[in-house]
Amino acid sequence: MAGVYGKRLGESVGLKSAPAARMQLLQTAEFATTHLFWDEPETEVATRIPMEDAFLVFHQRRGIPANSWWVDGRAIEMKPVSRGQSLILNLNEEHRSAVRSAVDTLAFYVPRLSLDRIADEQGIRRPIILRSTYGNPADDPVIGHLGECLLPAVHRPEQTNRLFTDYASLAMITHLATTYGDCPARAGHRRGGLAAWQERRAKELLMAHLDGNILLEELAGECRLSRSHFIRAFRTTTGMPPHRWLLERRIELAQDLLRTSTQSLEAIAFRCGFADQSHFTRTFSKLAGISPGEWRRQRS
Asked: Pick the residue with more confidence: 11 or 105?
């Protein structure tokens, strides 16, 4: 259902379509991000968000004034929402509103199945119910930061690897569950790192998927761990999450090829798992501080 949710959400708020990224957590549990934006409408836009056993989180990238809002037919006092604030809606309730302002927002669709999975991994009793915040916007920099990290996946999915979107979406759902639900964070609960065979197997799989086209579910399964335990153990062992470790290995491989071969930048980008040369150049420059072409020239 989340695979088409971006389009459906756009239609429900007066848009014909909206770009959406589909992030697979499980075969049966989806997480979706939609970027909605439009200029100030000439007339008031009536919206109706479809009811589902799910939650919808809006992160406002642009402030909006108070709009008329109804929940299950009851008028709700909506406060203005400042840039950077977030709203959480329970889609088991019917939401209608009348929008009279320009909008730039990221919408995160979180079905109950995703929260159930978090509960199972954390050993927490189901169900997790997220507290609605539509009458009192939340100041939550974590939602904003993770949302901005996922934004490129909405507009340039071909340049975003599955491992990163899987990691970021899991982080978002875990944050929502532990901050706004009845799933307590396990502060101070530490576990050890990966066993030697687990570390070796995880790194083998990552290097076999340089483009990041592998899910945390697969990595954790090969190590006989839950996703959450695997991420903690991998970070304890390597000092970084799996997607970051893989990115650094890709850049190291690229540097070796730049230094020892005459392959073109385009060929090296492909060899190191990047979508195209421009994506490779941007990523390399960000991590190395200079472009790959300049890096090669300095070492010729």
From this structure: 105
